[in-house]
Every structure is written in C-alpha cells, then in structure tokens.
Amino acid sequence: MCEPHPTSPMPHSDAKCLIRRATLADVPQLCELLTLLFSQESDFTPDPARQTRALRLIIEQPAVGQIYCAATEEVIMGMVSILFTISTAEGGLAAWLEDMVVHPGHRGKGVGNKLLEEATRQSRAVGCSRITLLTDAANTRAQRFYQRAGFGRSQMVPFRLSL
Q1: Cystine design at 22: which of 29, 67, 71, 83 (Cβ 3.0–4.6 Å)?
Q2: Strand order in the sheet with 18-21
Q3: Do 118 and 19 touch, CB atoms closer than 8 A?
Q4: Cα 35 to Cα 49, 129, 149, 161, distances in angstroms
C-alpha cells in the first residue's frame, strides 16, 4: 500500500511507496507512464516532447494544477494530475482529473486508490467543489474503478475541437 508523503501538505507513507507531489526530476518517468496511458486511449497518441512540456508547465505552476506520484526512492509506480478551473455552475473552483495511470506491474495493490484519494484530498483543500474526469469508452476496468470511488456518470457529452 502507498500513503501520502510526510512532506506533502496532507501526509500519507510506508517503506514500499509514498504518495508525493511530483518534481521536475520525475518528468522522465512520468512521461513513460503517460506513454502507457496514451497508448491505450483511442483519442491520443504518445508524444514525449509534448508530454514533457505539459508536465513541466503543471509542476512549475501549482495554481494551474498539481501532479502526485506513487513512488519508491527510485521508481514511480503511478501518477495522477489535477488541473484547476472555475465553474460557473458551482460558483467557484472545480478540478479536472487530467491523467491517472498506474504501471501494469503495480496494479491491484491499492496504488490507484491512494493516488485518487490524494487528488481528492488536495482538490478539497484548495476549495474545489467537484472533480470531473474522462475515461476511454472501452476502458471498463477504469470505469468500474471510478464508480467504486464514488464517481457517477454525467449526462454531459464530451466534444473536442483540435486547434
């Protein structure tokens, strides 16, 4: 099991794995995880240069978003990123769960649950009233994971315009 890092604003840790805020030094491993994620999602194609740029932007601008990773001293097993926006429907801050991925070799061990708990905790801590996410329509395992965590299907239908 993983727990938040003692130096994170809201700590959780055991000898095997910590949940902690990502740093710039983590970007190469986070990029590898995003390659795994985008390889299984039909709408995206891995592009390490783009992913590196985006990860750096988020890490360097905590008001825009935050990235948390499940890690030992050397290996990042999983990650979750949350981005912040203002919702006119909610009348305040809302979070967008942008990326959630656990390396296949570490799935089924509670890593994803701890990452999602930290993302939820941190979103509440900054005053968000909602977290929204998208998952691939064919990824029923992820859908069940989010439903077990309390997420419900929205009646909203996503549309995208590439610019």
Answers
A1: 67
A2: 3-4, 18-21, 65-71, 76-87, 92-102, 131-133
A3: yes
A4: 11, 30, 25, 22
The pLDDT, as a whole number, for residue 66 is: 97
Cα(62)–Cα(119) distance, integer angstroms:
13
Phi, psi of 106 (to 5 degrees): -120, 10
For residue range 122-151, list pLDDT tens digits in order: 999 999 999 999 998 889 999 999 999 999
Contact call for residues 97 and 135 (beta carbons, < 8 A) = no
d(CA 84, CA 64): 6
pTM for the full model?
0.87
Q: What confidence score (pLDDT) does residue 42 get?
A: 83
For residues 79 and 30, is the Cβ–Cβ distance under 8 A?
yes
pLDDT attached to residue 11: 35
Listing DSSP states for 100-131 in one string gives: EEE-GGGTTSSHHHHHHHHHHHHHHHTT---E
Q: Using alpha carbons, list the distances in angstroms from residue 124 to 91, 97, 109, 130, 135.
A: 15, 13, 25, 8, 22
- Whole-number pLDDT of residue 74: 87
Backbone angles phi, psi at 69, to 5 degrees: -130, 150
What does pLDDT average to over the chain?
A: 90
Domains located in the chain, CATH noted: 3-148 (3.40.630.30)
